[in-house]
Design goal:
The structure is a single chain. With 262 residues, this protein is α+β, with helices and mostly antiparallel strands. It has a domain at 7-96 and 169-255. The protein is 19% helix and 26% strand. It has 7 helices and 9 strands; from the N terminus they run αββββαββααααβββα. Helix 1 (7-14) packs across helix 7 (226-237). The protein is globular, with a radius of gyration of 20 Å. The termini are far apart.
Amino acid sequence: MNSSFTQKDIINYLEETDQETYHFFIDFEHPYFYPAGSRLTLYADEKRWAIVFEKSGYSTGNNCGEIEFAYFGNCLRNLQNKIPGNSTTSNMKHVILINNTDLEKVDNGEFEGLVANDKDKIKVRDTFLSIEHDTSKYLAIGINPRDYDNPKRLFDFYSTIRYLDEQYPDIFRATDKELRMCLPDDLPKLMQINQWHHKTYAKYKHMTSPTTYEDEEVGTKPSDYETYKMIADVLVSRDTTKWKPTLKPNNDWRNWLKAGHM
């Protein structure tokens, strides 16, 4: 199948940063976000392509459980800031899963961000989920109690969200409508990728004077390893059988333990 875009077009796009006022690449180590689950969704037809990255988790800045999205593609829309008088654009969007009021309802009240032992339910979207308090079940999947300001060995908000995400992944993943909030309604969905190998990458404008700058890149370019070149091949061909990764998946939050820390 022929496409009007190429693998090179997609990779070049992923390695640039000025498509929007605020443009973000896939980030598993943001200092204000503790990730839980993550996923990539691919869309394409002959002329249009898009990649939607989503990660669920706990936002320390907003004090809530949420899904954070980063949108990439040649057909994006609805990127404008919703604040009146603010004309900036961004490829990042958010959907609240657990608002800060509902988190406060389960707070221990003594030490910030810890879930009280006597709280048994928490509202996620429109569903009340049971809160697990058995320490052994958390430890079994690599979740440990916070080691500071925690004399009762309680689990904090982000650990609880990580546990719930693994128990109820469907609730913590984006709906089709949420995924498409910045996409044309008729853009075909090709596939979803739940596991992949990712390397940190960012490109910044380093100011060399008040009026001049140099581009500065940090990490590994998407063009330097197989993941995003293979994804680009899938998008160009619309052939999902081309997704045959050989690198070990590492998008699990356990591989990004710097996340949420300054």
